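Let's sit down with a protein and look at its sequence and fold side by side. Go ahead whenever you are ready, and we will take it from there.
>
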Amino acid sequence: MATETNGVSSPLAFTVVIEPDAEDGGYIVHCPDLKGCWSQGETIDEAMHNIVDAMSGWLATHIERSLDQARRSVTSEPLTQSLTLHVQIP
C-alpha cells in the first residue's frame, strides 16, 4: 500500500497471481488484495496489461463509491456564522 515520507507519496504495490488457463488457453490473473479483480490474456504480457487496467478500474470504482458514501453521510443542514465585513472605498 502507499506510504508517505516527508510529504511525498510512494506508489501502491500489489501482488498479482497469474496462472495458465487450462480450459481456454492463455492466462488468468487476479489481485488478491482487490476482491473480485480478475482478468486474462493470451500471453503473460497481455494478461499483465489487462490486470493493470482492471485494477485501475477497480480502484476508481471503489474510490468513487467511498466518496459517494461520505457525501451522503455529511449533514445537509446549513451552517450559519456571523460575519463582519469592513469595506473601504477610496
About this structure: Strands lie at 4-5, 8-9, 17-20, 27-30, 38-41. Residues 16-73 form a domain with the Double Stranded RNA Binding Domain fold (CATH 3.30.160.250). The radius of gyration is 23 Å. Helices lie at 44-73.
